[in-house]
C-alpha cells in the first residue's frame, strides 16, 4: 500500500484540466451565487416590510376619521390626516409590491443561469466540484 487513502487515489485518477472557459464559468457561478444571496436577503426584507404595511392598513382602519396619524417618512414621523395616511400607505404598498416582483424576477433569472452553469460544470468535473449552496 502506498500510504495514501483510497479515496484520494481515486480522486487523483480523475484529474481534469481546468480550461480558461471552465474557470470563467466557475467565476460567473460564484458571482451569481453572491448576487443571489443579496437578492434573497433583500427579498425577505421587502416581504417583511410588506407584511408590516398590511398590518398597518388594518390598524389605520380602526382609527377615528378626525384623529391625526403619525406616519413615518424616512427617519421622521409626520402628522397626517387619516385619508393622507391611507393614500400614502397605498402608494408605499404599490412600491413594495413592484420591488418584490422585480426581485422575484431577478432571483428566478439568476437561478436559471446558475442551473445551466451547474449542468455544464458538473458534466465536466463531476464529483470533483461542489456547486451546492449551504
What can you see in these coordinates?
The protein is 70% helix and 7% strand. The protein is mostly helical and 134 residues long. A two-stranded antiparallel sheet has the order 1-2. The chain is rod-shaped, with a radius of gyration of 25 Å. The relative contact order is 0.14. Mean pLDDT is 88; it is low at 1-13. One of its GO terms (cellular component) is prefoldin complex. Belongs to the prefoldin subunit beta family.
Topology:
Blueprint: H1 6-13, H2 20-61, E1 69-73, E2 76-80, H3 82-125
Antiparallel strand pairs: 1-2
Helix pairs in contact: 2-3
Task: Give the key terms.
single chain; 134 residues; mainly alpha; Helix Hairpins; two-stranded antiparallel sheet; 70% helix; rod-shaped; disordered N terminus
**CATH fold naming:** Helix Hairpins
Terminal-residue CA separation = 36 Å
> What is the correct CATH architecture?
Orthogonal Bundle
The strand count comes to 2
Number of domains: 1
Q: What form results from the Cα inertia axes? A: rod-shaped
Number of contiguous helices: 3
Average predicted local confidence, pLDDT: 88
Write down the secondary-structure element order.
HHEEH
Radius of gyration: 25 Å
What percent of residues adopt helix (DSSP H or I)?
over 70%
Q: Please identify the structural class as seen in this structure.
A: mainly alpha
CATH class: Mainly Alpha
Poorly predicted runs of 5 or more residues:
1-13
Strand content: 5-15%
Spatially, the strands of the biggest sheet line up as 1-2
Describe the largest sheet: 2 strands, antiparallel
Amino acid at each position: 500500500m502506498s500510504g495514501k487513502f483510497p479515496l484520494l487515489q481515486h480522486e487523483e485518477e480523475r484529474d481534469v484540466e481546468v480550461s480558461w472557459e471552465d474557470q470563467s464559468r466557475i467565476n460567473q457561478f460564484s458571482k451569481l451565487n453572491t448576487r443571489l444571496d443579496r437578492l434573497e436577503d433583500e427579498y425577505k426584507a421587502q416581504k417583511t416590510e410588506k407584511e408590516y404595511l398590511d398590518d398597518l392598513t388594518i390598524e389605520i382602519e380602526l382609527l377615528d376619521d378626525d384623529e391625526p396619524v403619525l406616519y413615518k417618512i424616512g427617519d421622521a414621523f409626520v402628522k397626517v390626516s387619516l385619508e393622507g395616511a391611507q393614500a400614502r400607505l397605498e402608494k408605499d404598498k404599490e412600491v413594495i409590491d413592484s420591488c418584490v416582483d422585480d426581485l422575484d424576477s431577478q432571483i428566478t433569472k439568476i437561478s436559471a443561469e446558475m442551473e445551466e452553469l451547474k449542468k455544464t460544470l458538473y458534466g465536466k468535473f463531476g464529483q470533483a466540484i461542489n456547486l451546492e449552496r449551504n
